[in-house]
Amino acid sequence: YTVESAGGGIGGGGGGGSSSGKQNKESLSWTKITPGAATIMKINNKELGVKQISITVNNPAQNVQISVIKYDGKPANVSINKTGKVYKYLEIKASNLNNTLSNAIVRIQVEKSWLNKNNLAKEKLAISKFDEAKREWKELNTQHIESDVNYDYFEFVATSFSYFAIGEKEITPPKVEEQKEEIQQAPEEVKKDIGGFLEIVPK
Length: 203
Known about the structure:
This protein is mostly beta strands. It is 3% helix and 48% strand.
């Protein structure tokens, strides 16, 4: 495989995106990935926020490359800011996977010092993926895996790659049930024909 860090260099398929800020990048390549066993991409660059990606494919794939890019701010190709506190903005992209990707289990690492500084419990952290078609962030199911002295580790499952944000879980406002005012309706009147006279009585 090949490894590259610090912005630029190896390009991948599946679109790109420049950023108004600095980038930090790492890429790995494989000549062939086959079904039946996960292919692991391990990343030692802690600045990226991604520790490893475990890739499973449905069909054999040739000359695959996975790139992880960390942006200092919101990527220029992302139109919507992620709400809440954001630890890192990332882009994960792949070339030559096409429709062969079954899923990818992505393990991320978050500095405990950042969580403490922002008063966030580990349960309040989540990964969100940018939906480029709908132009919105979608929160993914994020599991806390383990901790060490300096980091908390989380995992999420992706079936495709895009831009991701590591940050504060969406705060869903509590649903307030509106109390419907009961409107007292006057009883309907019924007209009765009594011997040629009309008698109006409540229904």
